[in-house]
Structure formats: C-alpha cells, structure tokens
Amino acid sequence: MTDIAEKSPTIGSRRLWIAAIVVAALQTAVLGYMVGERAWGLRSGVEILLRTAPVDPRDLLRGDYVTLNYDISRVPFSTMVEGPPKMSRSAAILSVRLKRQDDGYWGIVESSFGKLDQKPDTVVLKSLPVEYVFYGDATDPQQAIVGVTYGIERYYVPEGQGHDIESARNADRVAIAARVSSDGVAHIRSLLLDGKSVYEEPLY
Q1: Which residues of the chain have pLDDT under 70?
Q2: Which of 46, 53, 60, 200 could serve as 190's disulfide partner, Cβ 3.0–4.6 Å?
Q3: Residue 111's closest CA among 89, 93, 96, 127?
Q4: Euclidean distance between CA atoms 38 and 1, whole angstroms
C-alpha cells in the first residue's frame, strides 16, 4: 500500500506533463496552419485594389491600427442573383463576386448566399458569418443593403502613425491591396497612400 501511495504523485505528475506537451503541440500545429494558410493566400491569391474608409482606434497590446471599412462591405440586395432570402439566416456566408472597375478599384457585380462559380476576370470573396434578418420585401431593392465583413477590417501600423493614415483617408488618399485565394479568403497585401505602397505584408 505504501509503495502505491508513493508512486501515485509521480504518475500524476507524468500525466500532467504529457497533457501539457499534447496541448502545446496542438497549439503549435494550429498556429502553423494559420501562418501557412495566410502565406499561401498571399503568394497565390489574385490581387485586388479596394477603396477604404479607415478609422483610428487604439490597441494597447500591439500599438496603432486602423479599422477599415470598404465599399464592398455594403452589399446591395439588387446584386443577389436569386434575390434576397425571404427568411432570416444565422451565421450565413455571403459570396461576393468582384470585378475590376474602370477606376482600378474592384467592385461588386453579383452576390449570393449560395455558391458562385468562378468566371474570367473576376474573384469570388466570401464574407465572415453574418446575421441576415428578413424584415419583409424592400420597397427599393436598389437602396437596401446587407453589411458584411471579410476578415480584413484591421491593419496594424507602426505606433504613432495611425492618426496620419486616418487624416489621409479623410482626403481619399488611402487604398488597400488584398489577395484573394481560390477558396474566397482575403488577406491584406499592402496599404497604399496616393497610389504608392507604404506598408507591405511579407510573403514569408
């Protein structure tokens, strides 16, 4: 009985160490997957230029960042290929087809809560899950919109420079170059000021 009692703490400690190692390995694997997925998207994705409207909040942990809003974040009901759904949907993914416009920026040509097939000279961008609420038929579908996000709404900049970017935004001088992977995920490639890249993300 005494031998078992003496061995029990050792066995328990050993199990704790094994559990800690397993957890650490899983965390490392998840982080590696996230970095790898982002690197793949930046290397192989189609580059698009987006018009932005950033705001300058503060993150005490990582310094300055700008919160970015895009023209493509407001998706008109009129672009939905099958019309807006007649029922509310929770955590729905909206697929948005973008095409390069005459001014160089990419804009919405159609959208759908279903699948959009790939077409030449376009990219299909998938939103993050959105809560879609049906309030009845819109009186003017051209004015009705659904707001979405794409996971590219925050961009960190060197500390102290966020305000300068916001000021440039007020003068319509800021744009974002993003790359869209084949599965519809966007990653910010660079932030442009007056058409010139001032901050770039490494391709790893």
Answers
A1: 1-13, 19, 24-44, 53-63, 138-139, 141-142, 203-204
A2: 200
A3: 96
A4: 56
Per-residue tokens: 73: 């974040």
pLDDT score at 57: 56
Mean pLDDT of the chain: 82
Q: In terms of Cα–Cα distance, which of 148, 171, 196 is closest to 54?
A: 171
Residue type, 114: G
Cβ atoms 131, 91 nearer than 8 A? yes
Distances (CA, A) of 193 to 12, 91, 138: 58, 35, 38
CB 173 within 8 A of CB 102: no
- In this prediction, residue 70 carries a pLDDT of 92
DSSP letter (8 states) at residue 93: P
Q: How many CB atoms lie within 10 A of CB 175?
A: 21
Query: Model's pTM, two decimal places?
Result: 0.73
Phi/psi for 146 (5° steps) reads: -120, 130
Among 57, 75, 41, 193, which Cα is nearest to 144's? 75
> Which tokens is 190 given?
């660079």
CA-CA distance, 56 to 160, in Å (whole number)? Answer: 11
